[in-house]
Amino acid sequence: MKFPLVVGVGASKSKAGKTTFIENFIRFVKKKYDKTFIIALKYSKSSLYSSIITEPFLIEVEGKDTERMKKAGADFVCWVRARKEDLEYIAIKLNEIINGLNNKDRGKIVIIEGNSLVTAMQPNVIIFFKDKIEQATKASGKIVIQKADLIIEGDYSMEQVMRKIENIQQKKLIENSLKERSNDGKITCAEARKIAEELNVPYIEVGRVANELKIKIRKCDLGCF
Questions:
Q1: pLDDT confidence of 8, banded at 50, 70, 90?
Q2: Predicted structure pTM score
Q3: Residue 16 neighbours by CB distance under 10 Å
Q4: Burial of 10 per CB tally in 10 Å (0-12, 13-18, 19+)
Q5: What letters, b where the CB count within 10 A reaches 16 and e where it falls short, cover 148-180?
Q6: In this predicted model, what pLDDT tens digit does every residue of 156-190 receive, in sequence order?
Q7: Contact 177, 198 (CB under 8 A)
Q8: Alpha carbons 131 and 21: distance in angstroms, whole number
Q9: How many angstroms from the chain centroid is the CA of residue 54?
């Protein structure tokens, strides 16, 4: 897993298991990467005003989703109450808060709960909990499911989910590097090898993603791709 990582969690309806998943995710990450700094963001729709709440006496109210995230091991928890029209501005302010946190060189993970905030924050990986009844999906969920990297319907294994997150993140990092360094749909073998070495992935994986993107690797004398 590469840091920083931003994960968004959306769902087709309320009470779909998002908070339970986030609790399990936080515990799993803390166990596997004990020095990770985890930031959890909870979104609630508001029709009157928008605010970013970080005060412990509001975050740690017994039984609230934010308290569950904190108890699971999140180092910093925000509760976002916002109108839809304010979400773009809220996303900017949240990024400022996140970037300003001193995590003492620990790997940073941000996990976001709530369809509208997931859409506004544009995370690296989006997970969607889908209800079996298609017509039950709310409007905000229909937007997120189109962007989802991983759709969960029913039971899941956290270990398998984490492996998929790592694979999705790795592929997106390779895609971004190839797009940045290619020119007119082509990239040199030396540059492709450099991407693999920087990301610590096999050469063949960079070649596979390049093929998917229809980026031609040229001047390859070693047969790496």
A1: very high
A2: 0.92
A3: 19
A4: buried
A5: bbbebeeebeeeebbebbeebbbbebbeebbee
A6: 999 999 999 999 999 999 999 999 999 999 999 99
A7: yes
A8: 15
A9: 21
Instruction: Check residue 225 and give its pLDDT.
Output: 62
Q: What is the pLDDT of residue 106?
A: 86
How many whole angstroms from its chain centre is CA 51?
Answer: 22
Other C-beta atoms closer than 10 Å to the C-beta of 184 total: 7
Sign for the pseudo-dihedral over CA of 140, 166, 174, 111: positive
> Which residues are CB-neighbours of 95 under 8 A, at least 6 positions away?
121
- Please give the Cα distance from 47 to 69 (Å, whole number): 25
Contact 26, 69 (CB under 8 A): yes
Both structure tokens of 13: 């309806």
**DSSP track, 93-117:** HHHHHHHH---TT--EEEEEESHHH
Q: Which residues of 30-66 are buried (b: 16+ CB within 10 A; e: fewer)?
A: beeeeebbbbbbbbeeeeeebeeeeeeeebeeeebbb
What is the DSSP secondary-structure string of 21-36? Answer: HHHHHHHHHHHHSTT-
DSSP conformation letters of 186-219: EEEHHHHHHHHHHHT--HHHHHHHHHHTTPEEES
CA-based max dimension of the chain? 63
Please, what is the Cα angle at 167 between 161 and 79, to 5 degrees? 55
